[in-house]
Amino acid sequence: MSVTAEQVESRVVETLASFGPDASQITRTATFEELDIDSLDLVELAQVVEEEYGVILKGEDMKELKTVGDAIDLIVERAE
Amino acid sequence: MTGLGAVTPMGIGATTLHDRWADGVCGIVDGAGACREFDPKALLSVKEARRLDRFSQLAVIASGEAIAQAGWEGEAPYDPLRIGCIIATGIGGIDTVETQHDVMRDRGTRMVSPLGIPQYMPNAAAAAVTMKYSLRGQSYGVVSACASGGHAIGSAMRMIQYGDADAVVCGGAEATLTEFGYACFNAMQALSPTGMSRPFDARRDGFVMGEGAGMLVLEEADAAAARGATILAEVAGFGSTTDAYHLTAPEPTGGPASRAIELAIRDAGAEPAQVDYINAHGTSTQLNDAAETAAIKLALGAEAKRVPISSTKSAIGHLLGAAGAVEAVATVRTLITGVIGPTLGYEVPDPELDLDYVPGEARALITSNGHPPLAISNSFAFGGHNVVLALRGAAT
Fold it and tell me: Residues B320-360: pLDDT tens digits?
């Protein structure tokens, strides 16, 4: 399956925005801490990613993620 | 007691609940007591709303009203480690259970939400309210089916009396108007097939399910007085017993339930002659209303015929684990306003049930002996749990 970074970014931003933060705050450099996105939210994000792209993100993968950009890059890399 | 809050089929607010009831408004529409005026998206942040099952959402909003009335907004007047929180529910987050079970069946076990457990656990409402208001004393959920709300208030009273807390935010919440909720209660043949709640009426044929939350702020009396708080009423007595008779049917003589009434009155340092009003459990089922009438007669003796008895469930349906708390709120509003809400829909007397059920319209609360008014609020549950609260109006 080929997926572009733009598509992933758009899906990630949309999903995170549904968790509470304003979409305008969700940039590649924004940290999950700033966005008040916690580990429970990241598990939900991982479920969306798994259903959309077949990419399985485990707990140890998620622990390393600090920014929105980190998450997008990991998903794109795994989807290739 | 320094704060009251309620979200009910009557609307948002404790005064809304009692005022509309006293006006003869019935919050039951199409056989359900839904909180139609409750819009979680308008009242909660996106994050709060999506992380809370509906029962917890109702509890958070009702708690906010009670805490605001107590004058705690901004900063609580006690050490947060000395403020408790007890919130009852009969079932917990059943909508979350159903939704996530569907997810599991449709999309597999890996797709079940990580928010499933924290949303449906019965202590979720207590967790949410403590976090929102930084209450750091003892907190937990209470579960005793339709008596849960009464147990929460009684436990809160004891927590303060025992010296374990200076104040407790307490009450109950329930939101079971779901497909599975209806299926289960219908299977028991507990719900009214006509969709009418008419407690104590000869034609009563089951309860009407409702949803909502009732919350109270209790403070240690001297501490509340010292900070100049407005005292709304006093939780004066608590009595609780168990039928140990049948899983769902009440013990028909009313013996154990009557003992709970006696204990609550005695705990309040009162006598049956001093009871001015009874807020009945009054579910509109054949068995409850008969057993409750028997229990009141046993406990109050010759005084039973004198005391006006009405059922808030005639106006909002049966709020299950929230019922005892919402009805305590309605009872306190009765003590404050001096107006007793009627038992709506009561038209055809049952010859076996011969007490004063306040038919037709609201009535003035007549107080005995010039004392602050004293009321009792009954809650009797599936499982045989009986709770009675004695509530006394503030001295004027």
Answer: 999 999 999 999 999 999 999 999 999 999 999 999 999 99
Of B47, B114, B115, the CB nearest to A36: B47
Decide: B134 and B370 in contact? Cβ < 8 Å: no
In this prediction the pTM is 0.96
Residue B264 backbone phi and psi in degrees, to 5: -65, -45
Chain B residues with CB under 8 Å of A14 CB are none
Structural domains for chain A: 5-79 (1.10.1200.10)
**Terminal CA-CA length for chain A:** 7
Residue type, B62: A
Reading the block at residue B72, the tokens are 């705690």
CA distance B372 to B395: 6
Chain A residue with CA closest to B117: the answer is A40
Structure confidence by residue, pLDDT tens digits, B198-240: 999 999 999 999 999 999 999 999 999 999 999 999 999 999 9
Question: Residues 29 to 58 of A: which have CB under 8 A from any B CB?
Answer: 36, 40, 43-44, 47, 50-51
SS3 B201: strand
Q: Give the tokens for residue A4.
A: 């572009």
pLDDT in tens, B63-115: 999 999 999 987 899 999 999 999 999 999 999 999 999 999 999 999 999 99
Give the span between the Cα atoms of B181 and B188, in whole angstroms. Answer: 11
CB contact (8 A) between residue B47 and residue A40: no
The answer to whether A44 contacts B115, with C-beta atoms less than 8 Å apart, is yes
* Closest residue, chain A, to B49 (C-alpha): A20
Q: Are B248 and B188 in contact (CB under 8 A)?
A: yes
Calpha distance B159→B1 (Å, rounded): 14
